[in-house]
Design a protein that fits this description.
3 domains, TIM Barrel, alpha/beta, 8-stranded parallel sheet, 3-stranded mixed sheet, lyase, Isocitrate lyase, globular
C-alpha cells in the first residue's frame, strides 16, 4: 500500500529546497518514477519476497488449501508473461511464484550451448537469470503504472473520477513475487556454495533449493546414476546458504532441502562415525556390506566399519563407488528430511519417480512424526508421463475393486497401451484426468505439499508453439498460421503482447521524454503508430 499524494508532497519539499537548480523538475513526475521502481536492489526484493513466502507458509499451516504454485521460467520475458497472465486472469498475484530450474539454465542459458542437467553450465548464469527475471517483472510494474498515470491525467483533464484512479495506484499489486532458485548441489564445496548463494540472494532470490547429490557427479533427478553425499556434507552446505542469507541481512531467507535418495543407490564417500547412533553411523547402516573377521580380510584401499557389533566392509563397485542396500530408499529419504529440517532447512523436496499422492503422503507422514510442521516443495515434473501414470492408477484401483475391465487393454501386456488416443473419451480416461486436475489440491491436503511447481513447462510450451506455427507457416497455411493461431488469439485473450511496442517499453519511453524534454519531446506514439490498430 502506497500513498500517491504523500509521495508527491515529499518530492515537492525536496524540489523546493533545491530551487532554482531543480526548476525543470516536476514533483509529481518524480513521485511517479519512484513508485514505478519500488525495489531499488536485489536485496530489497529478497527481503520483501522472503516475508511474503513466510506469510504464505504460515497460512498453509493453518489451511492446506492455501498452497502455492509456480512455473519454471528460463527467461525474464516468460516470467513476466506468466505473472501478467496470472494477475489478469486471477486478479491477484498472491500465492504465485516463479521457479528457476537448473535444468533449464543448463539446457537454454549456457554459453557452451545446450547441456544436460549435470552442473556443467556457468554457475554465474543462475544469479544472472534471477536478476533478469526481476528486471522484467519490475518492467511489468512500470508499464501498468504508466497506464494508470495516463488515465489519471486524462481524468484530471476531463473532470473524471480522480480519486478512484488514485486508489488504484495506492493499492497497486506488484508483479514481483518470490523466486525459488535451484543451486543444484552447490557447484562445488561448502565455500563455493556460500559464494554462489550470496550472488543469488543479491540478485533477489529469497528461497534457494539445494540437493544432496555429489556436486561433480550431479545428475537430473529423473535419470539414473545419482550419487548422494553423507548427511554431514549436506548439512554443511545448508549452513553455508544460511550464513549467506544472514550476512546479507535476509533473516527470513528460505532453504529448500532436496533429497534424491529415493532414486539414488550410490555414494562415493564413507563418513567417519564418532559415536554410536550418530548421523555417520546411520548413513553407514544403509550400505551394502560384507562381514569380515579382521583387518587381514581387507584389500588395499578398503575400509572396515562396525555395524551392530559386527566388523564388516562396505562393498565397493568396480567404479570405486559404494552401494546402498536395496529396500533402504524410503528410510534414507526420511532420515534426509528429518536431519535437514532439524539443521536449518525450511522446506523439503522429495524427488519421486511418479506422481502418486499416497506415496508422497507415506514419506511425509513419517517425517512429521519427528517434525510435525514439515512441508514440501513438489516437482510436478514433465518427466512423468502424467496421462499414463494416472490411467495406470485408475486401472489398478478398479482392478482391486473388482470392476469389469474387459473394455480396456491390459497394461500388463504392454505398459503404454493405456496411452492410446482411442481411450481419451472413455470413463477410465475421464477419471484419470479428474485425478490429474485435483492432484495439487489432493497433494496439499493429504501429503503436506505447500508449493507445487512444474520445472520445465516453458521449455515445452516454446517447443510446442513453435512447432505448430512452423508447420502451418512453412506449409499450406502461410501467413494464416500466424494470424489465426497467434495474433487473433492474443487479441481475443486481451494479451499485452499484441501491443508489443508498449510491452517492450515504448510508451514508458515516450512518457519519460515528456518528463525530460517537455514540449520538445520526439515521441514514438501518435496516430501513425500501427499499434493503434489494436
Amino acid at each position: 500500500m502506497t500513498n500517491y499524494n504523500a509521495h508527491i508532497d515529499t518530492l515537492s519539499s525536496l524540489r523546493q529546497s533545491n530551487l532554482p537548480q531543480w526548476q525543470g523538475i516536476n514533483s509529481e513526475y518524480a513521485a511517479r518514477m519512484q513508485l514505478q521502481n519500488r525495489f531499488k536492489t536485489g536485496l530489497d526484493i529478497a527481503k520483501y519476497t522472503a516475508k511474503v513466502m513466510r506469510e504464505d507458509m504460515a497460512a498453509y499451516d493453518g489451511d492446506s488449501s492455501q498452497y502455492t504454485q509456480s512455473l519454471g521460467c528460463w527467461h525474464g520475458f516468460t516470467a513476466q508473461q506468466m505473472m501478467m497472465a496470472i494477475k489478469r486472469h486471477q486478479k491477484t498475484t498472491k500465492r504465485s511464484y516463479v521457479y528457476l530450474s537448473g535444468w533449464m539454465v543448463a539446457a537454454l542459458r549456457s554459453e557452451f550451448g545446450p547441456l544436460p542437467d549435470q552442473s556443467m553450465h556457468e554457475k554465474t548464469a543462475v544469479p544472472m537469470l534471477i536478476e533478469e527475471i526481476y528486471t522484467f517483472l519490475k518492467q511489468a510494474d512500470a508499464r501498468e503504472l504508466d497506464h494508470l498515470y495516463k488515465a489519471l491525467d486524462e481524468a484530471k483533464a476531463q473532470g473524471g473520477d480522480v480519486a478512484a484512479i488514485t486508489a488504484q495506484i495506492d493499492n497497486f499489486e506488484t508483479h514481483v513475487v518470490p523466486i525459488i532458485a535451484d543451486i543444484d548441489a552447490g557447484f562445488g564445496n561448502e565455500e563455493a556454495t556460500y559464494l554462489l548463494a550470496k550472488k543469488m540472494i543479491e540478485a533477489g532470490a529469497c528461497a534457494i533449493q539445494i540437493e544432496n547429490q555429489v556436486s561433480d557427479a550431479k545428475q537430473c533427478g529423473h535419470q539414473a546414476g545419482k550419487v548422494t553425499v553423507p548427511h554431514e556434507d549436506f548439512l554443511a552446505k545448508i549452513n553455508a546458504v544460511r550464513y549467506a542469507f544472514l550476512e546479507l541481512g535476509v533473516d527470513d531467507g528460505i532453504i529448500v532441502a532436496r533429497t534424491d535418495s529415493l532414486g539414488a543407490s550410490l555414494t562415493q564417500k564413507i563418513p567417519v562415525s564418532k559415536e554410536a547412533g550418530d548421523l555417520a553411523s546411520q548413513y553407514l547402516s544403509f550400505l551394502d556390506t560384507q562381514p569380515i573377521s579382521g583387518g587381514d580380510d581387507l584389500l588395499e584401499g578398503e575400509t572396515a566399519i562396525k555395524l551392530n557389533g559386527q566388523l564388516c566392509k562396505p562393498v565397493r563397485l568396480d567404479n570405486g563407488l559404494y552401494q546402498f542396500r536395496a529396500g533402504t530408499e524410503k528410510d534414507r529419504v526420511v532420515l534426509d528430511c528429518v536431519t535437514s529440517l532439524q539443521h536449518g532447512a525450511d522446506l523439503l523436496w522429495i524427488e519421486t519417480e511418479k506422481p502418486n499422492v499416497e506415496q508422497i503422503a507415506e514419506l511425509v507422514n513419517r517425517v512429521r512424526e519427528q517434525v510435525p510442521n514439515a512441508k514440501l516443495v513438489y516437482n510436478n515434473s514433465p518427466s512423468f508421463n502424467w496421462t499414463l501414470k494416472f490411467r495406470e492408477q485408475v486401472y489398478s484401483q478398479w482392478q482391486q475393486d473388482g470392476r469389469d475391465l474387459s473394455a480396456y487393454p491390459d497394461p500388463s501386456q504392454d505398459p503404454k497401451v493405456l496411452m492410446d488416443a482411442s481411450l481419451d473419451g472413455s470413463e477410465l480416461a475421464k477419471e484419470a484426468d479428474h485425478h490429474v486436475q485435483n492432484f495439487q489440491r489432493d497433494g496439499a491436503r493429504e501429503a503436506g505439499i505447500f508449493h507445487h511447481l512444474i520445472t520445465l513447462p516453458t521449455y515445452h510450451t516454446a517447443a510446442l508453439s513453435t512447432d505448430i506455427l512452423a508447420e502451418g507457416y512453412f506449409g499450406d497455411l502461410g501467413m494464416l498460421a500466424y494470424v489465426r493461431d497467434v495474433q487473433r488469439q492474443e487479441i481475443r485473450r486481451e494479451q499485452a503482447s499484441v501491443k508489443h511496442q508498449d510491452l517492450a517499453g515504448s510508451n514508458i519511453g515516450d512518457t519519460h521524454k515528456e518528463y525530460f524534454c517537455g514540449e520538445n519531446a520526439l515521441k514514438a506514439g501518435g496516430e501513425a503508430n500501427t499499434m493503434n490498430q489494436f
